[in-house]
Amino acid sequence: MCLVTHVGQKYSGNNILINKILDAVVVGGGPAGLMAASRMAAAGKRVAVFDAMPSVGRKFLRAGVGGLNLTHSEAFEPFTSRYQPDMPVTGWVRDFDADRVRAWAAELGIETYVGSSGRVFPVQQKASPLLRAWLGQLRTLGVEFFTRHRWLGWTSLLDANGLVIQAHRFLTPHGEIVIHSRCTVLALGGGSWSRLGSDGQWLSILSDKALACQPLTASNCGFDICWSKHIQEQFAGTPLKSVTLNIHDPDTGKNLFSRRGEAMVAKHGIQGSLVYAASRIVNQLIQRTGSVTFYWDLLPDLGEQTILQRISVPQGKESRSNFLRKRLGLTGLKLALLYEFAQGHMQSPDKLAAVIKSLPITVSTARPVDEAISTAGGLCLSELDEGLMLRKFLGVYCAGEMLDWDAPTGGYLLTACFASGNCAGNAAVRYLEEQK
Ligand SMILES: Cc1cc2nc3c(=O)[nH]c(=O)nc-3n(C[C@H](O)[C@H](O)[C@H](O)COP(=O)(O)OP(=O)(O)OC[C@H]3O[C@@H](n4cnc5c(N)ncnc54)[C@H](O)[C@@H]3O)c2cc1C
């Protein structure tokens, strides 16, 4: 560490910041960074949020396209079991649980409701009203926003009183600048949907500082399937519902995943909430054995015997497709999948009934990381103390998806991002108070 030397470059973005030491710099204007900013600003701290993109909260807005699943209404125990065991996520979520998420949204004038699956959504089913109200509240609290500011890293220094501060380098449309702050919250996101801002480039900055990081890998992701031209052209974008997906351990036969829900055929494979829910197990199996077979129950409301009875009657002059439509209600995508993956079983009632209840489709590669809903990996939690401050760098906190935790979809991702931002923001306030 060395003494502060202020960098007085010409900077038309906001001259006020140069040569002043802010209480807190937040890098990354996603849900985690904004939550940390609101905690610090509410405690009267001078906070500035920096983001590389032309506006903040872009991934949050994108999440709103699917209705914005903010959190989940289930009880605390099952809720926290969705995160990998032995994760400190439980601690963050204890202080900012699903009820707090709903109360926070309500304070911003956004009513929420519990869907039939227990998931919690804003009544408007989108993110823009919530983000607008949130940013308005932050501005009222005095938070300043600096977009198009790409963070390039930081150096820890000592000020004239011997207190630790951070000197951050940002690339701006006006060139490179240095901003000083007494504490910092890094909330740089994961590594998917890089066009929305979170590109994972921060990994090399943290690794260069000897901070342990795991590579960012696809989580809540789809899987490649080499569909026929017919499926690609006729059914890409078509939901596969309501089906049950079963996955077995290929060595022991043990059932590893069995859930009813909805998937979606994409041009290059299969995705959707049911597939995302299975993706952690599928990725582990692919790593272990090279491929995984999805077994689809296409008619979960009917037992195999009932199906067999219904199709064990003369077909007459009807086509096979017409017969299956009338006898079982099988049409469109489900029928196309049977023709594609069980052609040899179509004429035998026994075999057909069995394959309708367990249609095997094998996958061996996840879709690219950039397409995933979230990424696993990131900064190892062992680098952080309970308040999410880096053990090696006094006053530097980290929050959100950039940390090495993982969760399924269902509102668990956003809740942990809010909760970690809340934890880091509150701890940073205590740290600033102690520094006084
Ligand atoms: C299509 C889609 C739908 C989703 N739907 C849901 C859902 O319904 N429910 C749910 O719980 N989760 C959902 N998620 C996941 C959720 O949106 C993310 O987990 C969450 O946004 C992560 O928050 P974060 O604050 O950690 O990071 P982000 O929201 O990714 O924000 C990180 C910010 O850091 C900025 N940044 C990165 N690097 C730099 C740099 N070097 N300099 C300056 N700024 C930088 C980025 O521009 C970005 O604004 C969805 C994700 C996607 C892609």
CATH level 1 class label of the largest domain: Alpha Beta
Radius of gyration based on Cα positions? 25 Å
Number of domains: 2
CATH superfamily of the largest domain: FAD/NAD(P)-binding domain
Ordered list of secondary-structure elements with their pairings:
Blueprint: E1 21-27, H1 31-42, E2 47-50, H2 58-63, E3 71-72, H3 76-80, H4 89-95, H5 98-107, E4 112-114, E5 119-122, H6 128-140, E6 144-146, E7 150-158, E8 164-172, E9 175-186, H7 202-208, E10 213-219, E11 223-224, H8 229-235, E12 239-248, E13 255-266, E14 269-271, H9 273-289, E15 292-297, H10 304-311, H11 320-328, H12 332-341, H13 349-357, E16 359-363, E17 374-379, E18 396-398, H14 412-435
The structure holds flavin-adenine dinucleotide.
Describe the protein.
By secondary structure, the chain is α+β, with helices and mostly antiparallel strands. It has two domains: 15-218 and 372-435, FAD/NAD(P)-binding domain (3-Layer(bba) Sandwich), CATH 3.50.50.60; 223-363, no CATH class. Helix content is 33%, strand content 25%. It has 14 helices and 18 strands. Strands 1, 2, 6, 7, 8, 9 and 18 form a seven-stranded mixed sheet that branches. A six-stranded antiparallel sheet has the order 11-14-13-12-15-16. A three-stranded antiparallel sheet has the order 3-5-4. Helix 1 (31-42) links the parallel strand 1 (21-27) and strand 2 (47-50). Helix 1 packs parallel to helix 14 (412-435). The chain is elongated, with a radius of gyration of 25 Å. The two termini are 20 Å apart. Mean pLDDT is 93; it is low at 1-16. The chain binds flavin-adenine dinucleotide. Residues 27-33, 50-53, 56, 58-60, 62-63, 66, 68-69, 150-151, 187-189, 192-193, 197-198, 201-202, 373-374, 400-401, 411, 413-414, 417 line the site of flavin-adenine dinucleotide.
